[in-house]
Amino acid sequence: MDERRFRESDLVRWIRGESPANDTVLVGIGDDAALVRNPSASTLITTDMLIEGVHFDLASASPREVGWKAMARNVSDIAAMGGRSTVAVAAAALPRGFAERDGQAIVRGLLDCADAFGVRLVGGDLAATPGPLVLTVTLLGDTGGRPPVLRSGARVGDALLVTGTLGGSLLGRHLRFTPRQAEGLLLAERYAPHAMIDISDGLARDLHHILEESRVGARLQADHLPISDDARRAAAASGRSALDHALGDGEDYELLFTLDPPVAARLLAEQPLDVPLTQIGIITASGTTLVLPDGTERPLDPTGWEHTA
Ligand SMILES: [Mg+2]
């Protein structure tokens, strides 16, 4: 077992060897700043921080999973704008005495995710801290000249759709999820979504973000929701319904978006993605309604429906 404590210079040298310069990265790790070529005139930028004890726990998440997740959450945000992630910097505050092996595992996770989605890690910062582990990734992205897909574009009458299945991600999927970059790009290129968001806070809450920004309402069909097997397993343990888990659980990292109804019909007929696509409702003028399987209608609170039922 490697008992060595992390040394910044060793870790940076190792990361540098793992991230060679290329066509996009004119100056990479090792100088005072990186220099990158912008694919387009405008650039998407996002940042996200993971804090031990707040967002993850090293008793249940491996350092490699923490690294993956820190990068993947940012890739998911760029994907939700209809963009492709390009270049990242990462900053880590590692607890004093943190093992070098664990520091490398975090970077390995960051780089695994970066490689999987075509991202170049071009720089960062490492420091020792008396506090918990903090890992921050800042990511640039590109829409290929298209306008970004905003939260504010939903229109009354739009179909409301979601990728994948929902709920129960805390059983483990939240540490190993696949950000929907390919899906977001394909949707933006071929189907022109009016509004889009990635589901990080839970379907009900993230839907409310779209509705607030677009100043519209929605009508959701409970029996159309793609409820995951994990949501059913979580329900068996929690005593809440699988539906409530699908509506309220966070960290699914699926895409929630709205389309013109004829475009939605074409998309659903074509099913061009490797993940399921489901229409779960429509955009209305105001209010948020959940239609239960028996036809009863309930107002849908951002936290799910059992809290208000
Ligand atoms: Mg987001």
Would you mind describing this structure in some detail?
With 309 residues, the chain is α+β, with helices and mostly antiparallel strands. It has helices at residues 8-18, 63-80, 100-116, 173-176, 181-190, 203-214, 229-238, 242-248, 261-270, and strands at 25-27, 35-36, 44-51, 84-95, 120-129, 134-142, 159-163, 195-198, 217-221, 255-259, 277-284, 288-291, 297-299. Strand 12 (288-291) and strand 13 (297-299) form a beta hairpin. The longest helix has 18 residues, at 63-80. Bound molecules: magnesium ion (MG). Magnesium ion (MG) binds at residues 77, 80, 197-198, 200.
Properties at a glance:
alpha+beta, binds magnesium ion, Phosphoribosyl-aminoimidazole Synthetase, Chain A, domain 2, 9 helices, 60s Ribosomal Protein L30, Chain: A, 2 domains
Précis, in short:
With 309 residues, the chain is of the alpha+beta class.
Write the layout of secondary structure elements.
Layout: H1 8-18, E1 25-27, E2 35-36, E3 44-51, H2 63-80, E4 84-95, H3 100-116, E5 120-129, E6 134-142, E7 159-163, H4 173-176, H5 181-190, E8 195-198, H6 203-214, E9 217-221, H7 229-238, H8 242-248, E10 255-259, H9 261-270, E11 277-284, E12 288-291, E13 297-299
Parallel strand pairs: 4-5, 9-12
Antiparallel strand pairs: 1-2, 3-6, 4-6, 7-10, 7-11, 8-10, 9-11, 12-13
Bound molecules: magnesium ion.
